[in-house]
TrEMBL record:
Organism listed in the record: Oceaniferula flava
Entry protein name: Redoxin domain-containing protein
GO molecular function, one term: thioredoxin-disulfide reductase (NADPH) activity
PANTHER family registered for this protein in UniProt: NUCLEOREDOXIN
SUPFAM superfamilies, alphabetized: Thioredoxin-like
InterPro entries, per database record: Thioredoxin-like_fold, Thioredoxin-like_sf, Thioredoxin_domain
Annotated keywords: Membrane, Transmembrane, Transmembrane helix
Transmembrane segments annotated in the record for this chain: 166-182
Any one of the GO BP annotations: negative regulation of protein ubiquitination
Domain Thioredoxin: 6-150
């Protein structure tokens, strides 16, 4: 399978892919109707990836229910070995293809600073349509993918739970509230003494 074109200023090299079918590794090529490729940089050791992947798997299942599939998600594994990538795919029931381990260095120049990272690329031109890092970035790309896939649901795509998304913000707000209340309490005790 060859993906050519550019993601920014450089062209993608020819990429070898595989898909797991009933746990068995099989060579994979993009379908002729596939106009867009969504490169999903992810790893099993990455907490945000493990929280984002199940939502993306569910979205992919909705994509497969369509008659045509104009967008294909391709995993670019950031694990330490080919076996770890395959295990990650099995554990999360990823039905989309992945780059062969040996092909991953060919896209390293497009790798993000952080993962999970999803970049939607027009297949023929290599033009980047949308890209995003982290759960909220992946959400934005999936929203754009839906314009091409025809997947329509009443719910917007959400990666992870409310606490996953806003946990740090909630923790900071509660800490500030605790400090404020402690200072009020201490002020009253100092006045009463």
């Amino acid at each position: 399978m060859a993906l050519t074109g550019s993601l920014s200023a450089a062209a993608l090299p020819e990429l070898e892919m595989f898909r797991l079918d009933a746990g068995k590794k099989e060579s994979y090529e993009l379908k002729p109707e596939t106009r867009y490729v969504a490169l999903y940089f992810s790893a099993s050791w990455c907490g945000p990836c493990r929280k984002t992947t199940p939502s993306l798997v569910a979205e992919y299942q909705r994509m497969l229910e369509k008659e045509k599939q104009p967008v294909e998600i391709v995993l670019v594994g950031s694990d330490r070995s080919a076996k770890a990538v395959e295990d990650y795919m099995k554990n999360y029931h990823m039905r989309w293809p992945a780059l062969e381990w040996e092909a991953i260095p060919g896209v390293n120049s497009f790798a993000p600073a952080g993962i999970p990272y999803l970049v939607l690329v027009e297949r023929e031109t290599g033009q980047v349509i949308s890209k995003g890092t982290g759960p909220s970035g992946v959400e934005a790309v999936v929203t754009r993918m839906r314009e091409f896939t025809g997947v329509a649901t009443e719910e917007p795509f959400k990666a992870g739970s409310f606490v996953d998304r806003y946990g740090l913000l909630i923790a900071v707000a509660l800490s500030c509230l605790a400090i404020f209340l402690f200072q009020k309490w201490r002020g009253r005790n100092e006045q009463g003494a």
